[in-house]
Amino acid sequence: MQNDLLLVNLLIMAKHFFQAWLPSPEKINNMKIMRIFGQRVLTPQLWYINRKSISKAMFIGTFWGILPIPLHSALIILTILIFEANLPIGLLMAWIMNPLTIVPILFFAFWIGSKIYGVHMINKDMLLGVFHQIVHWIENFGHGHIDLSLAKILATGLLLEALLFAFLFFVFTRLYWRWSVVKKWRSRQMK
Predict the structure, then answer these.
(1) pLDDT tens digits, residue range 84-111?
(2) CA 80 from centroid of its chain's CA atoms
(3) Among the residues of the chain, which ranges form H helices?
């Protein structure tokens, strides 16, 4: 009985940490992109702080954050609404993943894609050329030329990279959460 009470207290401590750190539902709801989804973003399930909702949010945010596509925040919100994961964590993961790591993400995606299709790894000039083509294509709303053979390598690599890292973040979050609860539980038992 006492062990169960300690475990509950530890879970409450983890929740308090996240609640103090994460923005409020009202602050998130005031963001422009949230107007599309209306009051659904204020659903309490999207704000739960537990191992399952946080790990699902890590998966969703990492997956969409790695893919350099426009409107990834809207896709994250839509996916979070479907799977009822933690909304702020999902958005935070994408906002951290995309701008800070775009060059390594693209390089690793080309490496994965080149291994899958059995082609030699492309050099820096080819990578920059494809990146320029994609940016030009996006800026001109779909008008322009993209070398589809290289785009196929990139798209395949990005998809697999997004799935791989999303799965790793999901598993790491679950294991870390469990490890931290057990560690705190054991330290309290020793007192």
Answers:
(1) 899 888 988 888 876 667 778 888 898 8
(2) 11
(3) 2-21, 25-29, 51-66, 72-83, 87-117, 124-139, 148-190
